[in-house]
Amino acid sequence: MDLSLLSDLNKARTGRQAAILITSMEKNAQRLVRKGQDTSKDPLAAELEKRFRSGKSGLVALADGSTVFLTVNVPPPRLVIIGAVHISQALVPMAQISGFDVTVIDPRTAFATEDRFPNSTLTAEWPEDVLKSAPLDAYTAVAAVTHDPKIDDFPLQEALKTDCFYVGALGSRKTHAKRVERFETAGLTAQQIARIDAPIGLDIGAASPAEIAVAVLGSIILALRKGGEASR
């Protein structure tokens, strides 16, 4: 492998950036493509997007009869839950079983207790303080479930600005309409705001906290594996 490519790949891994190393099996040539890079003219554009979602490496046959091997490097998906509520208690173990690195953030110490969230990463601080040292990225999902804009709004806005693959918020349509007004005032675009999954989760008629957690996790996995457009 070209040492410069190896260095670039290691930097991508360290910085939680997705990248694919493309190796020509016939020509023994290599190149690196990062997620977010303009691939509109790349003959592998569709395949690269598919692999960025699946995270799976493998051989690909090209139209000219040659083959390339795609070595896919994507960071482990993260789920940041804003709010240590009943829905979160059910969502944490489900998400962990599904392979997500889960963090729960809630400054309300009456809710954010180890008794209610054993064996999980729980932070009883304000989201704006936590996210300074653990910034959001494209392989992070954010689910805001406190019903309190003083807690939810900042991480939701940061999630939209940093292009998190999923952004969901609990609340009625009336509540979300008020949220939209606040976010417009804060300078977010209509396109950014439209990415919010609200009311949160798949429309499966969920009623209990556990059922809502299932609906939320379903939306998150759908967005991760099939993209934001499919999730809506």
From TrEMBL:
- Residue ranges of the XdhC Rossmann domain? 79-220
Query: What protein name is recorded for this chain?
Result: XdhC family protein
Give start-end ranges for the coiled-coil region(s).
none
Which species is this record about?
Roseibium algae
Q: Which InterPro entries does the UniProt entry name for this protein?
A: MoCofactor_Util/Proc, XdhC_Rossmann_dom
